[in-house]
Amino acid sequence: MATSESSPLKVEQEATTETDYSDLDKISTEMEQELDATENSDSDLDEISTQGVEVNIAIVGKAGSGRSSFVNAINGERVGMASTGNQPVSYSRSANPNINFSILPNINQETHPAFKRFLESVEIEKFDAFLFFTAREFNQWHSIFAKKVESSNKPFFLIRAKIDGDICPEEEIDEGKMIEEIKADLADNLKVHFCDGYKVYLISNKHPDKWEFYKLAKAIADSLPSPQKKCFNRIPKDLKELIVWQEFQSFLKETDEKEKTAKIARIFPSVRDMKQLFSKCGIAGMQRMMNEKLEGWKNVKINLAILGNSGVGKSSFINAIRGVDDGDKEQAAETGVTEKTKTPASYGHPTNLNIRFWDLPGIGTPDYPNLPTFCQKVHIEKYDTFLIITAKRFTEYDLQLAKKVESMGKSFFFVRTKIDNDRRSELRKKGFNEEKMLKKIRDDCVENLRNFSFGEEKIFLVSNHNPAKWDFHRLEEAILEQLPAKQKEALTLTMRTDSKVILREKIKLLKGMYDDIQGNQVKYQ
């Protein structure tokens, strides 16, 4: 459950005061500074508004369920070990001591009377939210405790930690399928100890950029009253970036006008200056201006062609670059080594269907025996950029296609996939050195392309199952840089990525949105 709060902009519906806009340029830099400033770089206004405010979070679970590691991860610094005694152990972040995480005594396989005494000793009213952790399944003690918390009208969250522990980097597994299996097992588990309708957050404390760590942090913040929420949101900048951009994507998907108005404040960091804008042009005018800007880029069409032979990882790449799990039955491109593509197949981005990724048939097949036939049948002129994929060596057809695309003045990229498989094989050898392995693969690709004068800058080494490693982010950034301005803007705002370069570009685009609002405010008075 989450505590409701009114929009911070609600009071501005009747504002009519004339405002001085001389310092509005400062606002356009605030989100950029979030990436570079230290954690105590919040505005003076926010500092004053959170003075004396405390946030107390109770963390519940068995020993070894990932509680202390979670405190480390969300604080961005090292703390001590979890409680093993009879008293809660409290940790607070040095940059903001008003946020306290209390790791309660372990919930192990105790007798019911012992657990009852423990539960009676917990001062539920002193905590703002409760986090229930497990590294495998929830048990009756979680359920009994959670029901008591719920009866006290306190928010609580169910968390399955150590997801990274289910993924062995030395084994080939379908991560999407594995996640679906974990969710199915948890659903059965909840039917026994809870009931349907409860959300379980899947997280890794070692990799807060993956799975649902940022969704959990956002949900905790949203469950708190306004002062505590503002205080809790002073979290490490890497996590804050993920939450900010998740908020932005959610905003774009909303259709309810009142909800849109409420969420504008979450996009722009200074509520005070947004109030000034509202006093000038009103809520209706602000909504129209935001809609003009936002809907404009969503109408831009982009077609990205994905090319390569059977088994090179085209489908997995299409899923990875769209942020879709291979196991997603509704949105994922079907994966497998058998050639699935007889005709071009398109996959829209989950948050923007005008951005489409096309899985094209391989050249040299009976239906597409040569380059001219291929270009004619797939209507090569319709695509905006081309990603040529291989898991070993690029073929003569790949190189001919690149030359053809180059002659059309369009961008193309050579993508060498399955680097994780190469690493797994090399790990078995004595004296394994990852840098040497990557250099050899890259050098082999350069030699493969030498006769066509394509250099190293066109080559990207990626793993579709681990896009945070190797060249995946560099590839995303390169694709954006080669697109025309309008398409670059649309793809930047759509992409699901934790690339710092792209996040910074999103901030610049938000600055542009703000400038549009400032420049057009008189128009909508």
UniProtKB/TrEMBL annotation:
Query: What Gene Ontology molecular function terms does this protein carry?
Result: GTP binding; GTPase activity
Q: Which residues form a coiled coil?
A: none
Against InterPro entries, the record matches this protein to: G_IRG_dom (IPR030385), Immunity-related_GTPase-like (IPR007743), IRG (IPR051515), P-loop_NTPase (IPR027417)
Name the keywords, alphabetized: GTP-binding, Hydrolase, Nucleotide-binding
* Keyword GTP-binding carried by entry: yes
SUPFAM superfamilies, per database record: P-loop containing nucleoside triphosphate hydrolases
* Name of the featured protein: Interferon-inducible GTPase 5-like
The organism's lineage? Answer: Eukaryota, Metazoa, Cnidaria, Anthozoa, Octocorallia
